[in-house]
Amino acid sequence: MSKNYLLEMDEDKYFADPCDKPSLSQSVAHTLLSRSPYHAWLEHPKLGGQQRTATKAMDEGTILHSMLLGTDCKIEIIEHDDYRTDAAKLARDTAILNGYIPVKEKDHERLQSCVTAVKKQLLDYDISLIGQKEGVLLWIERDYKDRAVYCKARVDCFDGQMIIDLKSTGDAHPDAIKRRIVDGGYHTQAATYIDAIARQHPDLAGKLSSRDIFFETEPPYLVTVVELADSFLTLGRQKWTAAINLWSQCLHENHWPAYGQVCLEAPAWAIAREMDGDIIV
After folding, report:
1. Is residue 147 part of a domain?
2. Residues 38, 255: Cα–Cα separation, whole Å
3. What are 141's strand-pairing partners?
4. Domain for residue 255, yes or no?
5. Which of 237, 208, 211 has the alpha carbon at shortest distance from 29?
6. Across the strands, what pairs with 212?
7. Is 8 within 8 Å of 135 (Cβ atoms)?
8. What is the DSSP letter of 10?
9. pLDDT tens, 93-139?
10. CA gap 209, 222 in Å, rounded
11. CATH number at residue 183
């Protein structure tokens, strides 16, 4: 790919939010709609600024992501089998203090095996991770009152036509993936990325496609390549529009409600179970 369609930006600058006003990303939009505006406020770097506590799965996902794309990732290989000894704990804690992700040597070997297996399967699907890696999109949407809403996105890989997003998982079966796409808001992500790139580069309109690469992190490291149907993309666009309007409203009113007080109806399945006499007293 000879042309860079996306911005090159340092990772720290991107995640600190480079926009003039608090911007909306897919992840924040998903939190906004699936949790609450308060949760979205809390996780935004320019608002609540609360960072998620990294788990082993999250760290390994970051490492795998970097190894597959061939991008930089600050890791420190710990030459210990576990963290029971003081020496192992010191090596781990020092790595974290210096901004590195500690990974045990045996785990690193397993991650390398995963990367090798995934790359081989992608070749079988005629998919290559060649293109612009971790490029950034910055753009402005308009809410229902025609107010500007700053937005941002970071794309795993883009070759000028296909948007590729890598997702590590414990289960890459299509049935499990379908639920994860909904639960993670990945349909919103795909639709938003396609529309944002097309808006900035009208010559690409109608030529763009998106693929989510789900790969399992345990042997045999199976891969499922997902192209979302129009029904999924349409739903994603509806979600993004709802997020734009709610985010803008919360920003302008400086009001970030949590769950609040609700009146809940009994679900149909609970009523049916009661009528069938399945409840044990």
Report:
1. yes
2. 8
3. 149
4. yes
5. 237
6. 165, 226
7. yes
8. -
9. 898 888 888 888 888 899 999 999 999 999 999 998 989 999 999 99
10. 23
11. 3.90.320.10
Chain-centroid distance of CA 180 in Å reads 11
In a domain, 70, yes or no: no
**How many domains in the chain?**
1
Q: What is the DSSP string of 162-220?
A: EEEEEEEES---HHHHHHHHHHHTHHHHHHHHHHHHHHH-GGGTTT-EEEEEEEESSTT
Per the listing, tokens 């090798």 go with: 116
Q: What are phi and psi of 121, to 5 degrees?
A: -70, -35
Direct distance between the N- and C-terminal alpha carbons of the chain, in angstroms, rounded to an integer? 67
Query: CA-CA distances (angstroms) from residue 117 to 112, 127, 133?
Result: 9, 14, 20
pLDDT digits (tens, 9 = 90+) for 86-106: 888 898 889 888 888 888 888
Residue scoring higher pLDDT (254 or 55):
254
Helix (H) / strand (E) containing 96: helix 86-97
Burial class of 266 by CB neighbour count within 10 A (0 to 12, 13 to 18, 19+): exposed
245-272: pLDDT as tens digits: 999 999 999 999 999 888 999 999 988 8
DSSP H or E run through 85: none
Question: Which residue range forms the structural domain that includes residue 176?
Answer: 11-53+125-275
The residues facing 137 across adjacent strands are: 153
| 115 in Cβ contact with 221 (< 8 Å) | no
In a domain, 69, yes or no: no
Single-letter residue type at 251 = L
